[in-house]
Write the structure tokens for this entry.
Amino acid sequence: MGFSTMEFSKPLQARPTTIDGLLLFDLPVHGDNRGWFKENWQRKKMLALGLPDFSPVQNNISFNDKAGTTRGIHAEPWDKFISVATGRIFGAWVDLREGPGFGTVFTAKLDPSTAIFVPRGVGNAFQTLADETAGIE
């Protein structure tokens, strides 16, 4: 995602979604003529916004050469914090947990200025909207 198309100067904030515990985060991105910088995750600030104090189990990066690459629905037995390093994605999340929320779906477009907390039992999938998209989860 180029310098001119990214949304800069958003305040750090968490927004609830239609799925219980699934939180969408706006991340401040600071840019200049060299490119941009963002603080992807900062425990104290995120906890203050309602992120559960989870212990990361794994950290992955997926790189996708072409727009339109799809990664199907998958769920792990742990919580995940997903963000985009470069490019853009259309993400879909579905509540796979037993209970009244089972089957609830939430979708959103993510770029480097957004991230999402996915509680265990919620499946996630995405399709890239730009070439050379890299995501962190």
About this structure: The first strand starts at residue 13 and ends at 16. The helical segments are 43-48. The domain at 17-33+59-136 is CATH 2.60.120.10 (Jelly Rolls).
